[in-house]
């Protein structure tokens, strides 16, 4: 289901724990990390799609979370050509797929870490997860999604108290990673040199 500009409706989920750390999942078989997200099916509203994706990707039910807020409007990103299977619209379709347009939700975890299950479906999205500081560097996120993540995190931060401390991760500090029942420690990569940063 594409809009007239070629964007597929989608939802993104920023899940907070009680320390205001955010849930990140590692894409199965890859070295990239991301927030849960997924398409809005025909007849669904964004909230219903978010709750379905939350259960499918993270194994959490509505009673495990509290909805704090959502973005006001769609946030769009284009998928680079090398990730597209087709650059021309399929027969019978007027527009070609360009990328995603997303409504982002900010949730508070009301359950326990043990409620998280990455194998809630037969087709899991993630094979590991971890809690990250809210403002952690996005170097581990695939590059064409980084601007969207920055916009969503910045807009949704307004729902948190001005007194709330949203910590950043000092480079070199350990991050706890949960991999299908095992806890391991990972050290984030060193920050990129200025010459390597995106303009």
Radius of gyration (CA) equals 17 Å
> Could you name the ranges where pLDDT drops below 50 across 5 or more consecutive residues?
169-177, 179-199
Beta-strand content bin: 25-35%
Estimate the mean pLDDT confidence: 83
Report the strand count: 10
Q: CA-to-CA gap between the ends? A: 33 Å
Q: What is the H-and-E element order?
A: EEEEHEEEEHEE
- Helix fraction? 10-25%
By helix and strand content, what is the structural category?
alpha+beta
How is the biggest beta sheet arranged?
5 strands, mixed
Total helix count? 2
Shape: globular
Description:
The protein has 199 residues and is of the alpha+beta class. Helix content is 12%, strand content 30%. Strands 1, 4, 5, 6 and 7 form a five-stranded mixed β-sheet that branches.
């Amino acid at each position: 289901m594409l809009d007239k500009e070629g964007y597929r409706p989608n939802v993104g989920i920023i899940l907070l724990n009680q320390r205001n750390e955010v849930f990140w999942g590692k894409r199965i078989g890859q070295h990239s990390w991301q927030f849960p997200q997924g398409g809005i099916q025909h007849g669904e509203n964004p909230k219903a799609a978010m709750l379905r994706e939350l259960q499918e990707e993270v194994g959490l039910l509505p009673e495990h979370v509290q909805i704090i807020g959502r973005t006001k409007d769609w946030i769009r990103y284009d998928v680079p050509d090398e990730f597209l299977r087709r650059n021309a619209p399929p027969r019978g379709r007027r527009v070609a797929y360009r990328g995603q347009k997303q409504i982002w939700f900010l949730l508070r975890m009301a359950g326990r870490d043990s409620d998280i299950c990455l194998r809630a479906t037969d087709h899991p999205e993630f094979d590991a997860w971890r809690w990250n500081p809210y403002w952690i560097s996005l170097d581990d996120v695939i590059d064409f999604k980084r601007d969207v993540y920055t916009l969503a995190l910045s807009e949704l931060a307004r729902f948190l108290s001005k007194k709330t401390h949203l910590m950043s991760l000092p480079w070199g500090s350990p991050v706890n990673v949960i991999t299908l029942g095992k806890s391991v420690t990972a050290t984030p990569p060193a920050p990129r040199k200025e010459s390597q940063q995106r303009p």
